[in-house]
Design brief:
heterodimer, A: alpha/beta, Rossmann fold, Oxidized Rhodanese, domain 1, 2 domains, five-stranded parallel beta sheet, 18 helices, 13 strands, about 15% strand, B: mainly beta, Ubiquitin-like (UB roll), two-stranded antiparallel sheet, 9 strands, globular
Chain lengths: ~475, ~100
C-alpha cells in the first residue's frame, strides 16, 4: 500500500520512540552489569533482598511474597512473623487423602505449612466426591495422593508436597514418620488407627486424630505434652463391625470437612507451641494438665462438646514408662479387620450350595418369565434409591423379627407385616422359588439361612447382589 | 428417686432405637446400697437396649470402644463402674468413630 503524505506529528512520535528504545537498551545493559556486581558480593542471596540494594529488612525465614500472601494471618498477634516462619518450616504428615484429609490438607497448605507428606494408596472414585473436596471429576481413577498434590500446588505453589502412594504398614510407618514433626490421622479404619497411634508413640510425634461417620465427628490430640495415646483410651479394639464405615453407614459430606478443618487448626496450634485448650487449663504444670476430646454432632444440640478424657495411663501397653510393646505389631490381626473401609464379603453359605446363583443366571430366570418371588432385604434407605421391579421388600432385621415372632400375635404391628404375610403365604408352594437379593450378597446369605432355619428351603441366594447386577447385567443400574 | 440424664452418641443411639437424650428416674438405693453407675448400666441393658446385648456389654462391663462419661468427664477420672450416682447426673455413652 502506498502511503499518503506522512503527518509531521507521526514522524516526531517515531523519533521519540526510537530515543526511548535506545535509552531502554542502555538501562538494561546497566541493569545486568549491576546484577553481576551484586552477585559477586553475595552469590547465594536473592537479588531483590540483598542488603546492597534492599532498603528494608524482613523477618527471619520469610520473604517478601510470604508477607503479602499471609498478611491477614500475620496481623494476628497469636501468629505474627515468628509464628508464620514456624508454620513455613513445619513438616506435617497427613495419612489419608479422603474426607478428613481433603479439608485438613487444603487449609494446611493455604495457611503456609511448608512441607506436607500425604500417604494414600487409593484412587479417586465418583462416590468420594461429595466429601473429598480436594479431588474432582476429572481426577477419577487417579491416585488420591497425586490428585491432592495437584490441588495443593494450584492453591499454593510454594508448598513442598510429597505424595506417598503406599498403604501405611508396620514395615514402613516409622521410616515415613521420621521425616515429619506432626502426624495427622485422617484414615478410615480401625487397624490403621492403632498402627498410626503406636507409630506416633514410638517415633515420639504428636498425633492429631480425627474421625467422622454419619452425622458425627470426633477429634483428639494424642501423645502430646505427656497426654494419653489412643491405646490409653481404647486398650482393647472393639469387635470388628463392618457396618461402621462410611461405605456402609454413610456420612454427610460436610461432617469430615469440619473435622478436617479442626485437625488443621490443632496442627497449627502445635506448631506454634500453644496450649490446645487454654480456656480449660489454669496452670501449665504437667500434673494439672487436662485432656479433651471434641465431639461434633451435625444435627445435635449442642453441636460441639468438649469432653474431658483420661490422661496417660500408667499401665498403657505402649506409652507407659515400662511398655509391653516396643515395636509395631500386626494390626489387622490385632483388630480382626482389614486396613481399608472396602466392603467385606461374608461366606455364610457353603461355596457349592445348590441354592446359589449368579446375577447372570438370575437374569435368565427373569427373562424366561418363570414364576418366582424376588425378596430384597436391604434397609429402606438403600431400597428407595433403586430396586428391581416386582421386588418384595423386607429389611433383614425385620425379616428376622417377623420370622421369630411368626406364631405370636405382636408381629402384625410391623410396617413390613403385609409384605411378610404375602411372602409366607406363597413361599410354601414348591413351584414358586424365592430369590433373595441385597446390596452385595452378604445380607441375602443371612436371610437364606434364617429362612431355612424356619423350614423354608426353596430360597435362592443371588451372589454379589445388586452390585453384581450393575456390573454384569445392567450398567445403568445405579451403584452406590 | 434421682433424676438421671442419659445421652447416647457417636452411633450408640442406634442401639437404643435412635434416642439421643432421655431423662429417667432411678432409685437412690439399689439392693440395699447407694446406687452405682454399674447398676444403671445393667438397668439400661434390661430396659432400654433395643439391639443385641453384645453390642453394649462384654464381660459384664461396657464393651471396648465405648466411652462412658459422668457429667462430660471420662468415667476413668472418677470411680468407673463403682461411681456413686447423684441426683441430676448426666451419663453419656459415646462410641469411638474410626471412619473418615
Amino acid at each position: 500500500m502506498k502511503m499518503a503524505t506522512v503527518p509531521s506529528s507521526l514522524l516526531q512520535l517515531k523519533a521519540e520512540l526510537e530515543e526511548v528504545q535506545l535509552s531502554l537498551a542502555k538501562l538494561k545493559q546497566k541493569e545486568s552489569l549491576l546484577q553481576a556486581k551484586i552477585s559477586a558480593y553475595n552469590p547465594s542471596d536473592n537479588v531483590s533482598e540483598s542488603n546492597e540494594t534492599c532498603q528494608y529488612t524482613l523477618p527471619q525465614g520469610l520473604n517478601s511474597n510470604d508477607i503479602s500472601r499471609y498478611s491477614r494471618q500475620l496481623l494476628l498477634p497469636q501468629i505474627g512473623a515468628l509464628g508464620q516462619a514456624k508454620i513455613k518450616a513445619a513438616k506435617v504428615l497427613v495419612v489419608g487423602a479422603g474426607g478428613l484429609g481433603s479439608s485438613a490438607l487444603l487449609y494446611l497448605a493455604a495457611m503456609g505449612v511448608g512441607n506436607l507428606g500425604i500417604v494414600d494408596f487409593d484412587c479417586v472414585d465418583n462416590s468420594n466426591l461429595h466429601r473429598q473436596i480436594i479431588h474432582n471429576e476429572a481426577r477419577q481413577g487417579l491416585h488420591k495422593a497425586i490428585s491432592a498434590k495437584q490441588s495443593i500446588n494450584l492453591l499454593n505453589s510454594q508448598i513442598k508436597v510429597s505424595p506417598i502412594l503406599e498403604q501405611l504398614t508396620s514395615d514402613n510407618a516409622l521410616h515415613i514418620f521420621k521425616n515429619y514433626d506432626i502426624i495427622v490421622d485422617a484414615t478410615d479404619n480401625l487397624p490403621s488407627r492403632y498402627l498410626i497411634s503406636d507409630a506416633a508413640v514410638l517415633a515420639a510425634k504428636p498425633l492429631v486424630y480425627g474421625s467422622a461417620l454419619r452425622l458425627d465427628g470426633q477429634i483428639v490430640v494424642y501423645n502430646y505434652r505427656n497426654g494419653p495415646c489412643y491405646r490409653c483410651l481404647f486398650p482393647t479394639p472393639p469387635k470388628f463391625d463392618p457396618t461402621q464405615n462410611c461405605s456402609e453407614a454413610g456420612v454427610l459430606g460436610v461432617v469430615p470437612g469440619i473435622i478436617g478443618c479442626l485437625q488443621a487448626l490443632q496442627v497449627i496450634k502445635i506448631i506454634l507451641g500453644e496450649q490446645l485448650h487454654p480456656f480449660c487449663n489454669s496452670s501449665n504444670s504437667i500434673l494439672d494438665q487436662k485432656y479433651y476430646m471434641t465431639t461434633f454432632s451435625a444435627f445435635g444440640a449442642p453441636q460441639f462438646k468438649h469432653i474431658r478424657i483420661r490422661g496417660r495411663q500408667p499401665h498403657c501397653k505402649i506409652c507407659s514408662s515400662n511398655p509391653e510393646i516396643n515395636r509395631l505389631i500386626d494390626y489387622p490381626a490385632f483388630c480382626g479387620a482389614t486396613q481399608s473401609d472396602a466392603p467385606v464379603m461374608l461366606s455364610i453359605l457353603n461355596k457349592n450350595d445348590a441354592f446359589r446363583l449368579s446375577c447372570l443366571q438370575y437374569k435368565q430366570v427373569r427373562s424366561s418369565n418363570s414364576n418366582h418371588l424376588l425378596l430384597d432385604v436391604r434397609d429402606t434407605a438403600q431400597f428407595v434409591l433403586c430396586s428391581l421391579k416386582n421386588s418384595i421388600h423386607i429389611p433383614y432385621p425385620h425379616l428376622l423379627n417377623l420370622l421369630s415372632s411368626e406364631k405370636s400375635l405382636d408381629h402384625s404391628s410391623s410396617d413390613f407385616y403385609p409384605a411378610f404375610n404375602h411372602l409366607i403365604s406363597q413361599i410354601s408352594d414348591p413351584e414358586l422359588p424365592v430369590y433373595i437379593i441385597c446390596r452385595r450378597g452378604n445380607l441375602s446369605q443371612l436371610a437364606v439361612s434364617s429362612l431355612r432355619h424356619h423350614g423354608y428351603n426353596n430360597c435362592y441366594q443371588i451372589d454379589g447382589g445388586l452390585t453384581s447386577w450393575q456390573n454384569d447385567v445392567d450398567p445403568s443400574f445405579p451403584s452406590y | 428417686m434421682m433424676k438421671i440424664k442419659l445421652e447416647f452418641s457417636g452411633g450408640m443411639e442406634l442401639l437404643f432405637g435412635g434416642i439421643t437424650h432421655q431423662e429417667i428416674e432411678f432409685p437412690e438405693q439399689y439392693e440395699g446400697a447407694p446406687a452405682k453407675l454399674e447398676n444403671l448400666v445393667f438397668w439400661i441393658k434390661d430396659n432400654l437396649l433395643k439391639e443385641k446385648e453384645e453390642l453394649f456389654l462384654q464381660d459384664n462391663t461396657v464393651r471396648p470402644g465405648i466411652l462412658v462419661l459422668i457429667n462430660d468427664s471420662d468415667w476413668e477420672l472418677e470411680d468407673g463402674a463403682e461411681y456413686q450416682l447423684a441426683n441430676n447426673d448426666t451419663i453419656t455413652f459415646i462410641s469411638t468413630l474410626h471412619g473418615g
